[in-house]
Here is the input.
Amino acid sequence: MLSSGSSSRHSVSCLGLNRSGGRFAVAGEGARAVPLSGHVGFDSMPDQLVNKSVNHGFCFNILCVGETGLGKSTLMDTLFNTKFEGDPTQHNQPGVQLKSNTYELQESNVRLKLTIVNSVGFGDQINKEDSYKPIVEFIDTQFEAYLQEELKIKRTLHSYHDTRVHACLYFISPTGHSLKSLDLVTMKKLDSKVNIIPIIAKSDAISKSELAKFKIKITSELVSNGVQIYQFPTDDETVAEINSTMNGHLPFAVVGSTEEVKIGNKMVKARQYPWGTVQVENENHCDFVKLREMLIRVNMEDLREQTHTRHYELYRRCKLEEMGFKDTDPDSKPFSLQETYEAKRNEFMGELQKKEEEMRQMFVQRVKEKEAELKEAEKELHEKFDRLKKLHQDEKKKLEDKKKSLDDELNIFKQKKTAAELLQSQAQQAGGSTTLKRDKERKK
Amino acid sequence: MEQQKNLEGYVGFANLPNQVYRKSVKRGFEFTLMVVGESGLGKSTLINSLFLTDLYSAEYPGPSHRIKKTVQVEQSKVLVKEGGVQLLLTIVDTPGFGDAVDNSNCWQPVIDHIDSKFEDYLNAESRVNRRQMPDNRVHCCLYFIAPSGHGLKPLDIEFMKRLHEKVNIIPLIAKADTMTPEECQQFKKQIMREIQEHKIKTYEFPETDDEEENKIVKKIKDRLPLAVVGSNTIIEVNGKRVRGRQYPWGVAEVENGEHCDFTILRNMLIRTHMQDLKDVTNNVHYENYRSRKLAAVTYNGADNNKNKGQLTKSPLAQMEEERRDHVAKMKKMEMEMEQVFEMKVKEKLQKLKDSEAELQRRHEQMKKNLEAQHKELEEKRRQFEEEKNNWEVQQRLVEQQKLDASRTLEKNKKKKIF
Here is the structure.
């Protein structure tokens, strides 16, 4: 029951942003606090919410990044107390690949859909410049899938299998000196996309004093390179203390083992050496228990929330801005969803129409050109034949002339002939009469 | 793809529900409840009884104290805390509803209010920069039915039909202390019959896997719609202080299960199903609103029949697909245009060829003609020449003869002389 000490008139200001920035009740103006005169019963709301979540089941996705042989698979087996798939991989992978497996686990009444993604072949190549790319691509692909689902018209978000990576365990080689440049480069590329929890793998290879120095070196290198690793949240009083203590122990130095050794009268997970036995769950031996506490028991939900409200939102914002979406128009007035989509659509339709128009124009141009070409050819043809025709005409004329001259000659000849014949006949006649005369004389 | 794995020891994710619990308490909760019904049905009193507070008091008079000419929609926000859990409660009242002589469209302001809250949420959800999205959507609507004892009024039916797909409707029989249990029973049966007849979808209690819970749910379902009584006054009955209404013939106790269904309503609305009401609003009513809104935006002007089966895409994916379709269409268009072009060119070229062939033929013809004429002329000339030659030869012969003859004559003449 709320004591009615404070007046119920003044409005209650914002409840305060919690670190995750998730959805929460914003009182704002106009909400006044009122006292209750009995037990109403809405204090069961958290339980109602929890019941719903439990019925729905939980899901969690871990990405393990690290060089081959650092014990990623063994650590997962140890963390989740079960034997997951997989044979150890060889060192001869041509590039970095990501292998993901999903498992259904149950503990008490809680069902967990766990997806473990392993980077295969990381750090094995001679040229590692592009090693981080498949990893970034994988993370982005999961974000994209979620974004697409969120943007659908008919969507089923509450039954969507969330594949976004909630935690990235980055395995650091236990060299004892410092981070490799591959580590720095990769973590820098990943820190704005996923919650990175760096861990020192196979830490039973390092002595305690070396380990302390190693951790300091790693932390300072991360800071000086501006790599943002996941910080366990300290805003909730219930867990603030333990979380802030644990933040000081990062990166966790872990040892993984699925083999059991008898210590005292208990069987414990351990690694047996001639000089002693490293117990996985002994906090003096390694930070495995801390990792398990932080990752699973205390902050699993926060990791999911951070992924959704920070990393995913960043991805979404960038993607939408890339596509030209804005929240306000040039006059700083907020766009309504309808306006935004309509504007986009108009732009898009305009583009399409322009393309269509361009193609049409191109064709018109081609047709014109071809027509001109053909016309030219036609003209040439006609010219050719005109020339030929002319030649013909000339030839014909010549022929006509020849004909005429022949005719003339013919005529002249005819005339000559006729004249000659006339003369002849005359001569014959005369000759005939002479002959007659002669004959006559002879007869006398 | 998923495999069941057995755990061989303690892992710790069984603590997840606690983590969720912790975070939700830190966040706080919000709930928006709408009450609709004619004036005087005891809506404000019921709210005060439900939340054990004076939501509407002398300082903040409820809407019933204000006379309205038209239907208003009014919001009151209060912050209540209990057991460490903070709840931001918004009560939406609709003064004036059903009070006019002509109540046509008196549901419209209600629909508009609900839609505008959906729209706010949709816009907030669709921003590029999203912040905290306060959930001001209406999670539940308590609809007050006047205890006439007969059945639903036309207004009741009309209202519920128009709103049952926008909000969770919980119909209540108001002022249940004016009916005897038998009358109440009859009334309830009648109402349920009419609700089914008109296919009105009121809020349904979800089935669970829990046997016990299901039994309780079944009991509640049998008593629907709930008949309630509200009271702002506390009366002493048999040494107990209870909320109730004092009559000369006794006290009608609000929280007595035999007197009315108030306790059931309170338990259901607040203690067990508040979260589910929010979930149904989010997953069903809001999604319906959203998909309708986005479909209208995307398919603005486009053929709706064609697109009915394609609502699973986002508007952007839709545009992508349209772009691809357009590219295909353009390709086809290009091909077609190309074909037509080629064909026309071929035609023209053929024509040109034919024309050329024709001209060539004619030219050949003419040439042949000329040649024939040439030959003819040649022949003629040859003949002429031949004739001429012959004649000339003849003439020469004749001339020779003549010459010979004249010579002989001369000779004879000379002879004679001698």
